[in-house]
Design a protein that fits this description.
Keywords: ATP-binding, Nucleotide-binding, Transferase, Ubl conjugation pathway. Belongs to the ubiquitin-conjugating enzyme family. It is built from four helices and four strands; from the N terminus they run αββββααα. The chain is an alpha+beta fold. Strands 1-2-3-4 form a four-stranded antiparallel sheet. A hairpin with a 6-residue loop joins strand 1 and strand 2. The protein starts with a helix and ends in a 12-residue tail after the last helix.
């Protein structure tokens, strides 16, 4: 009987140790990405941990010029899974946005935010990082994938009437200072 508890404890310790090593690797990777973003910033993009948990970040994207989003600023949240970078982060718009590939809850339809490699559709790769994800989302603002919309109305309007589309973008947008990011 006494061997069972020690075997169970040994298994628990090994599992806990593996999780700690994995979490340590995730933390090191995120610290490295944060340092890269701080030392070589990309215009119009920023991201920082939202508090003491380095796996939860707040990000900001400015709308690309020559798009209906030009001059607008958007807040997003980025949550990194425990197996990052082998699985994509969960990224959501917190600023309300009118876009063919973003639903009203802020979920984003973007191939690199889906895990691939297991036969599923998805283009996530461990070589991608937070900066490349945010840059891809910023590019998506001006180049939506209307073949895979989350907002069908926005997809139809994008193709039909850019002036009306711009009106809907402006009507839905709230400046980040006007909103509580944590409440959304």
């Amino acid at each position: 009987m006494s061997s069972t508890p020690s075997t169970t404890q040994g298994t628990k310790s090994a599992g806990s140790s593996a999780r700690s090593a994995a979490n340590g690797n995730v933390i090191k990777r995120l610290q490295s990405e944060l340092m890269a973003m701080m030392t070589s910033p990309t215009p119009g993009l920023s991201a920082f941990p939202s508090g003491s948990d380095i796996t939860k970040w707040n990000a900001t994207i400015t709308g690309p010029t020559d798009t209906p989003y030009a001059g607008l600023t958007f807040k997003l949240t980025v949550s990194f899974p425990s197996n990052y970078p082998y699985a994509p982060p969960d990224v959501m718009f917190k600023t309300p946005i009118y876009h063919p590939n973003v639903d009203m809850a802020g979920r984003i339809c973007l191939d690199i935010l889906k895990k691939g490699g297991d036969g599923s559709e998805g283009a996530w790769s461990a070589v991608l990082n937070t900066g490349s994800v945010l840059l891809s989302i910023q590019s998506l603002l001006g180049e939506p994938n209307n073949a895979s919309p989350l907002n069908g109305e926005a997809a139809l309007l994008w193709d039909r009437d850019q002036a009306e589309y711009k009106k809907k973008v402006v009507a839905r947008h709230q400046e980040p200072a006007e909103m509580d990011v944590d409440a959304a």
